[in-house]
Amino acid sequence: MANYPPRSEVRLRKKQLASKKQEETEFETLDVDYQDVLNLPSRKEVHQSKGEFSGKTRKENKNDKKKKQVQFPLVRILLILFLLLVAAVVTYPIWVEKLIG
To answer: For bias kind Basic and acidic residues, which ranges apply (predicted)?
Structure first.
């Protein structure tokens, strides 16, 4: 007669295999993109901007960013018109006398 393990051990082993298989399927259904943590780049490399690789200081990089900002022509025109209006109000007594007189 063959030497089989007791039925209680067989049942226990089947339960363990079933639970292990269920855990594996749950793990596979997670749509998580896992990365190898040991081969990630350092924080410094990830968070550096492109300009910092050229050896510029942080202040120089901020100045470069300011130069690249979009100019607003409408705001400039309104500012010039406002300054002209202020100049006209301040010099009103002078040029009104010339127009009237």
So the answer is: 42-63
Yes or no: say if 49 and 61 are a contact pair by the CB < 8 Å rule: yes
CB 51 within 8 A of CB 61: yes
Return the C-alpha torsion angle 41, 47, 50, 51, nearest 10: -130
Distance of CA 59 to the CA centre of its chain: 20
The full set of domain ranges for the chain reads 57-101
Q: Mind listing the pLDDT tens digit for each residue in 16-65? A: 888 887 777 665 555 556 677 788 888 888 887 665 555 666 666 666 66
Region 77-97 average pLDDT:
93
Nearest to 65 by CA among 49, 79, 42, 53: 49
Give CA–CA dist 84/90, Å, rounded: 10
Joined together, the tokens standing for residue 16 give 């363990």
